[in-house]
Amino acid sequence: MDRAGTGEARTHSLGIALVTCSAAVFGLAGVLTKSIDADPLTINCWRGLVGALLITAYVFWRRSREAAPRPLRLGWRGWLMAVVGALASIAFIAAFKNTYVANVAIIYATAPFVAALLAWLLVREKIRSQTMLAAALSLSGVGLMVFSGIGTGRPFGDGLALLMTLGSALYMVLIRKFRDTPVVWAGAVSAFLLFVFGWFVTDPLAISMRDAVLLAAFGVSFAIASVLWTEGSRLIPAAEAGLLGSAEVPFAILFGWLFLTEFPPVASLIGGAIVLTAVFAHGARDLAVARAEPAILEKCAVAKKN
């Protein structure tokens, strides 16, 4: 292998490592949320402030390295993305407080399929047959989980997780629709909005020292995971980044079991297995197609020359 090939392989390996680490750090969200005694809005408030400050620092660092940095003006599109992201985050944290970590993580894993449905409804983006099949399979798994929670005091949390997933899916559609919007900066503004909202609605200063430390750690982990994902996804194909990002789900379940001794009911495990099968099978197929495309294009080029 020549030097160029070696450098390419190292860059690809670095991208895989960064995205995988991002998934692992994101997987800590449920553990951190349940370890903090404060209410969900207070958690969002301080997580938003710490995360926003660090992401803002990252945005300006990244801009300093660019020859022609894009303007940071959000416009109404960026503000819409920031508001949708903030609302999804509120539902996300509240969901962890009201149901199993595994349930939230597994329901959230269906976000790409919900995004595909929303893209079809809102912008008439065509849905592939394999995506429809995977979506139907994953949603059946979610239905099993939610139905099993009725009568156990968990359906409210599962419902919040569904709302969070809907909000996250809409955010994904907006990213694709408004490609010229500075996405990372919109994420930082979204986090700032959470801080402002939490400051005026709750009493964010009424927290214990233990919670203060955990809230700071939560904000730092949120920023680190966001930066790792942003940097890693630049180095590998989008299909591969999406597949590796799905590892957040098993990480979240593992951490919930290790640190909270939280073991979900059998119905959640069965539903989760169905969802993960659909997600990983769909992602693996996308990755295989993405890897095959260069070879197909090369063959077509050779055929045209001949």
Short description:
The protein is mainly α.
Note down, in words, how this protein is organized.
The protein is mostly helical. It has one domain. Helix content is 82%, strand content 0%. The longest helix is centred in the last third of the chain and has 40 residues, at 266-305. It is globular, with a radius of gyration of 20 Å. 45% of the residues are buried. The mean pLDDT is 85.
Which range best describes the helical content: under 10%, 10-25%, 25-40%, 40-55%, 55-70% or over 70%? over 70%
The total of beta strands comes to 0
How many domains? The number is 1
Q: Work out the radius of gyration.
A: 20 Å
Features:
0% strand; single chain; 306 residues; mainly alpha
Layout: helices, strands, pairs:
Elements: H1 3-26, H2 29-35, H3 40-64, H4 75-98, H5 101-108, H6 111-123, H7 129-149, H8 155-177, H9 183-201, H10 209-233, H11 238-245, H12 248-260, H13 266-305
